[in-house]
Amino acid sequence: MSEQNFADDGRSEYADALPEYAERVLEVTEMIPPGRVMTYGDVAEYLEEGGPRQVGRVMSLYGGGVPWWRVVRADGVLLPGSELKALDRYREEGTPLKEASRAAEGHVPRLDLKRARWDGGERAQGHT
């Protein structure tokens, strides 16, 4: 089975097969409240291990079974290739966005990281 199938099939069935670091990244991702985000670097900092690239790799291989759209680029640009799918989720959850200027390619909004960023201090169930 390819690594891509882990992400497509969800994580619970394959939890024992995941590397420990990947499991920890996915656990943090699941903690992020709806309407909030963490950058790849934020997740690494929260775990006190790895860096943005390592978190990004975990998300690309195994993130399909968790709210992947809540782990984002540090510049607030939506993930190329998944921007419309993510945008639907952000709007559904009320995630703060900055509307795109007419000059922006595709006129796709960016995340408003000042308002949407979550520091891991509050638990998801207690946050609106």
Q: What this model shows, in words?
A:
27% of the residues are buried. This protein is mostly helical. The chain is 41% helix and 6% strand. The model is unreliable at 1-14 and 124-128 (pLDDT under 50). The chain has helices spanning 3-9, 20-31, 40-47, 52-62, 83-93, 113-116, and strands spanning 38-39, 71-72, 97-98, 110-111. The longest helix is centred in the first third of the chain and has 12 residues, at 20-31. The strands form 2 sheets. It has a two-stranded parallel ribbon. A two-stranded antiparallel sheet has the order 3-4.
Main sheet: strands, sense, barrel: 2 strands, parallel
Radius of gyration: 15 Å
Return the string of H and E elements. HHEHHEHEEH
Number of helices: 6
Any low-confidence stretches, pLDDT <50, length ≥5?
1-14, 124-128
Termini separation comes to: 39 Å
Strands side by side in the biggest sheet: 1-2
Overall pLDDT level: 84
Sheet/helix structural class? mainly alpha
- From the spread of the alpha carbons, the general shape counts as globular
The total count of strands amounts to 4
What is the percent of helical residues? 40-55%
Portion in beta strands: 5-15%
